[in-house]
């Protein structure tokens, strides 16, 4: 009887996961199908696959949206933002957990305040400040915003993990003459590989897929990210959905390739981060 119950539970779990997977994959599949259609075919049957498959949309998007250029821009911004978040966030977490100073708990609480507020609530004063500092339409300016908005999550994840690290390890290093920076770089930072993987996934995807901040900060059209390149196919009559769908496929491809190459480390990082963090 116990065996039958276990089999039933296993079947129900697989069924539930299958249903969830279908809901997740359905929009992606629809976008891929639309990307191979012509506009007349799309108007006749929106979501049904059609033959022959047309590659004209991909060729036009590659040229008109400058896919290599905007991909390089998105990749540069994402990598720099995540590296900045990891470095500053881990340093702050190390200071909060390993260095004794007054009001450490107060600072820990203050660092978490940005989690309560969305970036949209401060976008107007931020825009005016950037305008005065001439940081609009610069990659550097956008990277600073991403680092600042992602620090709260980073500090929270790193702090929770570093609080579990044995203090004897750091004390032994200090007895051997290691200062705080050496203890951080040689002891604490290597222990946080799982947390770095988790932050890279969560914050990296957030930066890569973000449409709002590039739209607000790149006002003159001289710099575009991959999500922003979809505006290339906007007309006075609306969006050209076949071209936009091809653009979305180009936007998904780098992340899919990275996941396929690093899925072992990504899964291990998320699992370890969930357990240890």
Give a description of the structure:
The chain is 74% helix and 1% strand. The protein is mostly helical and 277 residues long. The protein folds into two domains: 3-44; 57-275, MetI-like fold. A two-stranded antiparallel ribbon has the order 1-2. It starts with a helix and ends with a helix. The model has no long low-confidence stretch (mean pLDDT 84).
Alpha-beta classification = mainly alpha
CATH fold topology of the largest domain: MetI-like fold
Largest sheet: 2 strands, antiparallel
Which CATH C-level class of the largest domain is it? Mainly Alpha
> What is the N-to-C succession of helices and strands?
HHHHHHHHHHHEEH
CATH superfamily of the largest domain: MetI-like
Keywords: Cell membrane, Membrane, Transmembrane, Transmembrane helix, Transport
Organism: Robinsoniella peoriensis
Family: Belongs to the binding-protein-dependent transport system permease family.
Subcellular location: Cell membrane
In short:
With 277 residues, the protein is mainly alpha-helical. The protein is 74% helix and 1% strand.
Which key features would you list for this structure?
mainly alpha, MetI-like fold, 2 strands, MetI-like_sf, L-arabinose transport system permease protein AraQ
SSE order and pairing:
Elements: H1 2-35, H2 39-44, H3 56-64, H4 67-98, H5 104-111, H6 123-133, H7 139-162, H8 167-175, H9 180-191, H10 193-209, H11 212-217, E1 234-235, E2 238-239, H12 241-276
Antiparallel strand pairs: 1-2
Helix pairs in contact: 1-12, 3-12, 4-7, 4-10, 7-10, 8-9, 10-12
């Amino acid at each position: 009887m116990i065996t039958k119950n276990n089999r039933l539970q296993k079947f129900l779990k697989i069924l539930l996961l299958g249903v969830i997977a279908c809901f997740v994959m359905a929009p992606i599949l629809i976008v891929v199908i639309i990307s191979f259609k012509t506009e007349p075919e799309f108007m006749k049957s929106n979501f049904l696959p059609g033959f022959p498959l047309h590659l004209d949309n991909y060729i036009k998007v590659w040229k008109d949206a400058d896919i290599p250029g905007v991909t390089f821009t998105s990749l540069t911004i994402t990598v720099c933002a995540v590296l900045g978040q990891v470095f500053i966030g881990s340093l702050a977490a190390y200071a909060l957990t390993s260095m004794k100073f007054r009001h450490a708990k107060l600072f820990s609480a203050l660092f978490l305040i940005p989690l309560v507020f969305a970036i949209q609530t401060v976008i107007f004063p931020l825009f005016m400040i950037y305008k005065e500092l001439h940081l609009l339409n610069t990659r550097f300016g956008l990277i600073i915003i991403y680092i600042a908005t992602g620090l709260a999550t980073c500090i929270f994840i790193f702090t929770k993990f570093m609080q579990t690290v044995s203090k004897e390890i750091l004390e032994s290093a200090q007895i051997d003459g290691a200062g705080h920076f050496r203890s951080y770089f040689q002891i604490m930072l290597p222990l946080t590989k799982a947390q770095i993987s988790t932050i890279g996934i969560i914050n990296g995807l957030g930066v890569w897929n973000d449409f709002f901040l590039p739209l607000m900060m790149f006002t003159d059209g001289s710099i575009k990210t991959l999500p922003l390149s979809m505006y290339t196919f906007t007309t006075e009559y609306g969006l050209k959905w076949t071209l936009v769908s091809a653009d979305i496929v180009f936007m998904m491809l780098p992340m899919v390739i990275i996941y396929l190459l690093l899925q072992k480390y990504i899964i291990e990082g998320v699992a370890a981060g969930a357990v240890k963090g």
